[in-house]
Design a protein that fits this description.
The chain is an alpha/beta fold. It has twelve helices and eleven strands.
Length: about 350
């Protein structure tokens, strides 16, 4: 690590742009967490790129003192993939929202994950369209009353982590905007992952969907509603760590550790490095089940070849077989003609 890199601090990654999010928005906490870990990772401004689509979250590149692209609604994954493919040395980040990536951008999102370029994806999930003033989004709960669903949404919501796991994502995690210490740690772990890291952040929109995640941030209720995951540790939760998750076959069950029927040895032990995606899917689905805590932390982290590495290998092989190539010759080969004036 260079001396210059060692001297960088959080403030060096803060741009001179006025932050134009609503006062009290959860986006501020996410921004601060990312800016804080940049020097820890050894990043430089010129070696980092932030890419976004459209939405409140997509103003992110303006607030980072790095390179950045504010691109097209839902198409940011294509830009991010191209940037990484053409310059693999760059540290590429993608900031997106539940509407940007899971609605119009759904197709680009899943193919980014299956390709596995070494890119960090942060999905701001506030379960609403904030920039366009409060319509329901793909993650809004069934029955949600909004300006575009005055009688309540009749659709089942997407679970972003489930979508990511089904798309063969190699790193899937979930954090909470107000739990800044844990969020920062999660971002750092995600950034160090070799491959596409996907972090869903429960983010409060205090204007159009205030309190959507209150049960996970309130000092009392969060102890009963959050299951903080740690690799190789039993799944314990509750105010006094008096509850846990065990499996009955493949069915998760909440058990008491105080009734004399179960002990900590009976509980499910987390394995975030499991190649089999079954456990990660089971954990991800708990967030959609009533009477179950929502897992927070890393659901899955496995290693697979990165897209840009495999692409470079193909290009190098083609050069070995056919030489460097001649673009002018390529454009003029075959049937060509000149149109005279």
């Amino acid at each position: 690590m260079s001396t210059e890199t060692q001297q960088l601090k959080k403030k060096d990654f803060v741009s001179d742009q006025d932050v134009r999010w609503c006062p009290g928005c959860g986006d501020y906490a996410i921004l601060a967490s990312v800016q804080k870990i940049m020097p820890v990772l050894g990043n430089t401004q010129e070696g980092t790129v932030f890419v976004s689509g459209i939405g409140c979250s997509s103003r992110f590149p303006y607030y980072m003192n790095t390179y950045g692209f504010h691109t097209i609604h839902g198409r940011a994954p294509a830009f991010a993939t191209a940037i990484k493919a053409t310059n693999p040395k760059l540290d590429v980040w993608l900031a997106t929202g539940d509407g940007d990536s899971l609605s119009i951008g759904g197709n680009h999102f899943i193919h980014l994950l299956r390709r596995n370029p070494n890119i960090n994806v942060i999905l701001f999930n506030n379960r609403i369209y904030g920039l366009t003033k409060g319509q329901y989004s793909p993650t809004s709960e069934k029955g949600k009353i909004t300006k575009s669903t005055p009688f309540g949404s009749i659709e089942e919501p997407f679970n972003p982590s489930d979508v990511a796991l089904s798309a063969k994502a190699t790193f899937v995690a979930r954090g909470i905007d107000r739990d800044t210490k844990h969020l920062g740690e999660l971002m750092e772990v995600a950034a160090k992952h070799k491959g596409t890291s996907f972090v869903e952040v429960y983010q409060n929109c205090n204007i159009f969907n205030d309190g959507a995640f209150l049960q996970y941030t309130d000092k009392v209720s969060k102890l009963e509603n959050c299951l903080y995951l740690e690799h190789d540790k039993p799944m314990v939760f509750g105010k006094d760590d008096n509850k846990g998750i065990k499996l009955d076959g493949l069915k998760p069950v909440v058990v008491s550790l105080e009734d004399g029927k179960h002990s900590i040895e009976d509980l499910l032990v987390h394995d975030q490095y499991a190649e089999d995606v079954t456990l990660a899917h089971i954990l991800s689905s708990l967030s959609q089940k009533p009477d179950f805590p929502t897992p927070i932390g890393v659901l899955r982290s496995i290693e697979k070849p990165c897209y840009e590495d495999e692409l470079v290998k193909q290009i190098d092989y083609a050069k070995e077989q056919k030489g460097e190539g001649d673009l002018e010759a390529l454009l003029n080969q075959g049937d060509t003609w000149i149109v005279e004036d």
